[in-house]
Write a structure and sequence with these properties.
The protein contains ten helices and 14 strands. It is of the alpha/beta class. A hairpin with a 2-residue loop joins strand 11 and strand 12. The protein is elongated. It starts with a strand and ends in an 8-residue tail after the last helix.
């Protein structure tokens, strides 16, 4: 898959004579609704005998328009988003810098520069996709502004249990620790990608060595608690039990949430490695224990429970 990073004004012309069937949207999470849009764009590419493409934006508009309290956390960050798009069999990914210059374009300017300028022959988007200054452009206007240069397809809302599948809904489920329903909406386990960093090494002293995973800034995490997870490094996926939270047994003052994974049946050096945590099932809330012994006793229970759950849960191919 070819990846093009575009910035307006500046890097727009990709110096190619290729034509594209394009799926356009922010696509945070690449959930079932997004997958439907992208699949339709890919289908149209086959019909027209042209390349398939996805256009997304970075950063999220809320990071430009909102204050610190209104910034939206990312469900899926680049390059994980790129990996998932490539797995869908897409030929090209356009990542457009979302800044004030882009946000100031009128709907017509946006279409002229990005659709016609990139030789797009068909555009597919969700029914609620908007573009141009203040989101004034709709997909109905997109068709009018095309002036016959490209076709358009609008995908109606995709529902699950009579509710719209949306990134907002997924963020709410994660805030509740509901990683199981999140996985249903994503059609895969929710994944956190980060780097294994040095921690307090307290887990090793307790007999439960952990890998501390530091996600990228502004990454959405599930609610504080303990989870059965799958942990992937170097293309190898292992079972684990993960605690996310502030470790209240040891910390009186609030600290940023920490992701700690006790990788089952593994003892090795993981520091500095990129790691992926796939959240499979919620086990229990975070708890402050009266003693270290009480914590260790509970950790034994957590580990056994996670092992039983993961042995019964299929590890999907491609989770690495």
């Amino acid at each position: 898959m070819d990846i093009y990073k575009l910035h307006y004004p500046g890097t727009i012309d990709i110096d190619s004579t290729e034509q594209y069937s394009l799926a356009i949207g922010f696509f945070d999470g690449l959930h079932k609704g997004h997958q439907t849009v992208i699949a339709e764009a890919k289908k149209k590419a086959v019909e027209l005998g042209i390349r398939s493409a996805v256009m997304t934006f970075d950063p999220h508009p809320s990071h430009l328009f909102g204050d610190g309290n209104k910034k939206v956390g990312y469900i899926t960050q680049y390059p994980e988003k790129a990996r998932l798009v490539e797995e869908m069999g897409i030929d090209a990914l356009f990542i457009v810098t979302f800044d004030w210059a882009l946000a100031s374009l009128s709907p017509k300017q946006f279409v002229d520069i990005f659709m016609k300028g990139l030789r797009i022959k068909h555009v597919t988007a969700g029914f609620d996709y908007t573009f141009g200054s203040k989101g004034a452009g709709t997909m109905e206007q997109m068709a009018e502004l095309a002036d016959g240069a490209f076709g358009t397809t609008v995908i109606d809302k995709v529902t699950d249990h009579d509710e719209k599948v949306s990134s907002t809904r997924i963020r709410q489920l994660l805030a509740e620790g509901n990683v199981e329903e999140t996985a249903e909406l994503l059609d895969r386990p929710f994944r956190t990608v980060g780097v294994v960093v040095d921690g307090e090494k307290r887990g090793r002293l307790l007999g439960f060595p952990t890998a501390n995973v530091l996600p990228k800034p502004d990454t959405v995490l599930p609610a504080n608690g303990v989870y059965a997870v799958r942990f992937t490094t170097d293309g190898i996926t292992r079972n684990g039990v993960c605690s996310v939270g502030v470790k209240p047994t040891f910390h009186e003052s609030r600290i940023p949430p920490i992701v700690e994974v006790n990788v089952l049946d593994f003892d090795g050096d993981l520091y500095g490695k990129e790691a992926a945590v796939d959240w499979i099932q919620y086990l229990r809330p975070e708890e402050k224990f009266d003693s270290v012994d009480a914590l260790i006793k509970q950790m034994v229970v957590d580990k056994q429970q996670a092992r039983e759950i993961l042995e019964l849960t299929e590890d999907p191919a491609g989770s690495s």
